[in-house]
Amino acid sequence: MRLISYNLRKHRAASELVALVGRHDPDILCLQECDTAALPESIDGLSLVRATSGNRLGLAMYLRSNQFRVERVRTIGLKKSLHDRVLKPAEERVLGALLTNIDTGRQVIVASFHAAPLTALNSLRRNQIRAGLDALQALAPGKPVLMVGDYNYPVFKENLGQTVRDHGYRLTLSDDRTYTRYRVFRGHYDFATSNGFDIADITTLPQGTSDHRPILITAEAA
Known about the structure:
alpha+beta; Deoxyribonuclease I, Chain A; 7-stranded mixed sheet
């Protein structure tokens, strides 16, 4: 399974999606910070599964409908940061789907995730990650889970990695930094947490008009 995750920076990079999908041929596309009302029903052969509706800049997922059948979809609200409460509430920070591989019959859970902004504490983002993974597992207990997206966690990843491992999951970074706009904030923001997947690699793709670089995950359910 090949999956691309991309934070569109307030939908500015939406015009890149057709070329991105055409160039890298993913099976699944997970988006963050997209204008959900402006999304097309398909992108170069990928069909829209669902987009969030609780806030204008939200999450979306596309997939190859001849490869996966969508069994169940869930949007998940998580504990809010002060930024969310005061300035611009984000009602849904996880968009997850239970998918069945049409050829093999195997089921997996895949999700697009966007953590609270850097104004929040790392402890709140760790809480969001744990809660998001728990809610996804509830879709189909025991099925492999892969949650990708913008974790907004550039430093102290050792603590995050230990937290994720203690929760029964694995944290996997890409091969290069994914956020490069401001020197002081540069780092790996976009990555994956998973359970029951063998992740072969995560490649950071070239910079576009977003302040985040897209990542390409190659993974297989174990």
